């Protein structure tokens, strides 16, 4: 890949230091970022290139310590870094910066807005005024794109005034995770699953994204957002789309995005009338996670709040393929373990020939478990005869494919793939504007229903699996949340 320019607004922030710069370092180690590339950190305070480089050196120290190949490359990588102070509310520094970056249409310029969504429009306007928004320029925006449909529209319109849609890359980092990409490989690279991938053969789908962390350092953002906006609107819905979408005609970005959009538009609306039956919101209280005592959400926050840190939803995709198949979604903070997985439970065999055997235990339905993190892998649960002379005894066992054991090596972080895709100009793993709009269109009435119905979040003890109402949500239907042994 030829040299390029990557400009990170919010260049000293948490995302840049924890995710973006370590990801870029790894791409440099693998030779995808060559000499002549310039990586700029932009922020408001005065700082020299040297001071910035030192800060980044500390930020990537752990990555370097973990792998001698990475450690060897740190000096070369650091050389590519620059720091510029730019004022978003004024002109200061912009003409010089614009002259330095230039507007060569043949050199890729990626502007990464690792800043709050309230600043997206302002940065866009500045880039345009500085002549930096033309051909060759791309802009990357982080979620959340707004806090509801209306505010997302304002942001998208502001970006749209400066950039063509093809220049806008809306990141959902879940789409960059290896195992999430593997969903597409699994479904459309194998003849085995697709014929069964429909209501006729699938009983239900579960999508769980469980975290052990609490508020971390993000109280200001998180308390305004809550789990529905922070996780469901984007990550969980995107996973649901990849499970439920029709086979796209090709791997072309719009081919896939068109199919995802149709899923979002087929979601059964949830509003005041049915939110109480189909959704559960929770907020963690003090407890223990991994044997360590942790405070409750309100103690961490220091004031009262009705923000949810847990959501469970029974969703439905209303189309021919999925009619009547529930998609149970749940996500929360301070849960028992960090674990994200998709569980596809198939229907029971239509008739059991084993039922009359003495001590027959019921046949368990087949399940395909796609583990996104940690221990990435796939398990296919099957009924199997217990070996030995004890008759036709059956047990549920898993065919177990661990990504690490099968492929070895390190798993690249989602941001590595996504950052390089922005440079390559491949929008496949980014959200198109209409997808964001459609996701908000489904989310907003849920939020609204909670407000109108005064549905305060139900307390749950940190270290568990959320409020008991989330268990009831699925057990009411005669099903249970999947638990791996
Ligand atoms: C982010 C959310 O998008 O995803 C965070 O804002 C959450 O609240 C994070 O912790 C989870 O990402 P991952 O990759 O650790 O599962």
Automatic annotation (TrEMBL):
Catalytic EC class: oxidoreductase
Domain Glucose-6-phosphate dehydrogenase NAD-binding residues, every copy: 7-182
GO BP terms, alphabetized: glucose metabolic process; pentose-phosphate shunt, oxidative branch
The keyword Oxidoreductase appears for this protein: yes
GO MF annotation, one: glucose-6-phosphate dehydrogenase activity
PROSITE patterns attached to this UniProt entry: G6P_DEHYDROGENASE
InterPro entries the UniProt entry points to: G6P_DH (IPR001282), G6P_DH_AS (IPR019796), G6P_DH_C (IPR022675), G6P_DH_NAD-bd (IPR022674), NAD(P)-bd_dom_sf (IPR036291)
Gene Ontology CC annotations of this record: cytosol
Cell wall biogenesis/degradation as UniProt keyword: no
Pfam families xref list: G6PD_C, G6PD_N
Residues annotated for NADP(+) binding in this entry: 44, 87-88, 143
EC number, UniProt record: 1.1.1.49
Active-site residues (renumbered): 235 (proton acceptor)
Keyword terms: Carbohydrate metabolism, Glucose metabolism, NADP, Oxidoreductase
Pathway: Carbohydrate degradation; pentose phosphate pathway; D-ribulose 5-phosphate from D-glucose 6-phosphate (oxidative stage): step 1/3
Protein name: Glucose-6-phosphate 1-dehydrogenase
Native source organism of the sequence: Marilutibacter alkalisoli
Gene for this chain: zwf
């Amino acid at each position: 890949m030829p040299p390029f320019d990557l400009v990170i607004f919010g260049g000293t922030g948490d995302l840049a230091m924890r995710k973006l710069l370590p990801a870029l370092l790894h791409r440099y180690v693998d030779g995808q970022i060559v000499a002549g590339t310039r990586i700029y950190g932009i922020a408001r305070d005065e700082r020299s290139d040297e001071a910035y480089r030192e800060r980044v050196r500390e930020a990537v120290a752990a990555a370097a310590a973990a792998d001698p190949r990475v450690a060897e490359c740190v000096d070369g990588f650091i050389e590519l870094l620059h720091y510029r102070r730019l004022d978003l509310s004024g002109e200061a520094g912009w003409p010089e910066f614009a002259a330095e970056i230039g507007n060569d249409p043949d050199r890729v310029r990626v502007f990464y807005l690792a800043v709050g969504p309230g600043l997206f429009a302002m940065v866009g306007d500045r880039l345009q005024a500085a002549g930096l928004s033309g051909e060759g320029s791309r802009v990357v925006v982080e979620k959340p794109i707004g806090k509801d449909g209306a505010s997302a529209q304002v942001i998208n319109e502001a970006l749209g005034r400066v950039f063509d849609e093809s220049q806008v890359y809306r990141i959902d980092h879940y789409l960059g995770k290896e195992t999430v990409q593997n969903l597409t490989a699994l479904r459309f690279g194998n003849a085995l699953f697709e014929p069964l991938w429909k209501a006729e053969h699938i009983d239900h789908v579960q999508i769980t994204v469980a975290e052990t962390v609490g508020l971390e350092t993000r109280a200001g953002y998180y308390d305004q957002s809550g789990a529905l906006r922070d996780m469901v609107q984007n990550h969980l819905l995107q996973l649901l789309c990849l499970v439920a979408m029709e086979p796209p005609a090709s791997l072309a970005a719009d081919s896939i995005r068109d199919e995802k959009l149709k899923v979002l538009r087929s979601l059964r609306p949830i509003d005041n009338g049915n939110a109480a039956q189909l959704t559960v919101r929770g907020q963690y209280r003090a407890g223990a996670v991994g044997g360590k005592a942790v405070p409750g959400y309100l103690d961490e926050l220091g004031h009262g709040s009705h923000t949810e840190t847990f959501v469970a939803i029974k969703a439905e995709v209303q189309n021919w393929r999925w009619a009547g198949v529930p998609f149970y979604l749940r996500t929360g903070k301070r849960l028992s373990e960090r674990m994200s997985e998709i569980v596809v439970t198939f229907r029971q065999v239509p008739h059991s020939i084993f039922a009359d055997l003495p001590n027959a235990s019921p046949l368990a339905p087949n399940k395909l478990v796609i583990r996104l993190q940690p221990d990435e892998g796939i398990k296919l649960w099957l009924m199997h005869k217990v070996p030995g002379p004890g008759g036709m005894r059956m047990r549920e066992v898993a065919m177990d494919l661990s990504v690490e054991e099968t492929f070895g090596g390190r798993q690249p972080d989602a941001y590595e793939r996504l950052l390089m895709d922005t440079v390559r100009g491949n929008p496949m793993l980014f959200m198109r504007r209409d997808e964001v709009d459609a996701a908000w269109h489904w989310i907003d009435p849920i939020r609204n229903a909670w407000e109108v119905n005064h549905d305060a979040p139900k307390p749950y003890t940190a270290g568990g699996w959320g409020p008991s109402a989330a268990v009831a949500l699925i057990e009411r239907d005669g099903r249970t949340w999947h638990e791996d042994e």
